[in-house]
Model the fold of this input.
Amino acid sequence: MALTKCPVDQSEMRQIQDKGIALDWCDLCDGIWLDPGELARLSRTTVDIPNLLPKPAPARTHESSKTPQCPRCNVPLEEILYEQAGSLQVDRCPGCHGLWLERGELQEIYDAAGRKLRMSGSGEPAAPADNSSDSLGTTVLITVLILLAGLIAILVIWIFQRPL
Ligand SMILES: [Zn+2]
Ligand SMILES: [Zn+2]
Done:
């Protein structure tokens, strides 16, 4: 397979292994090219590119006026919002849906995925763990109420039986 060329500076990218997935990494600008599906496997989320919303593209603010090009299809990349990571902007190929991540962006996506995973367990809605802890809380509450009622009953009996 031919080496991937960096979409920004056209230098040959190096293949690196991350979590068993081969990524193309640019030595020069620290950018990373991800083929479709690789981001989902990397960030261990089940959502990949379909959740990325196309963003009304304003004029590019890149230092170079050249639009990055997809190393696979040679078409200009489009800027999109990666919603999972706040308002992170990434470049995506409209053709093959590969992703171009500039320096630091992959880490932001990792961080966001980590936060998400910690917040909502596996990401499934209504995690079973939450339900069981809910019913456990209810059981504890009922037990405490019964004990409290028992204590009050004992106290009342004791007050009534006390010689005045
Ligand atoms: Zn580069
Ligand atoms: Zn492409």
Residues 128-161 form the longest helix (34 residues).
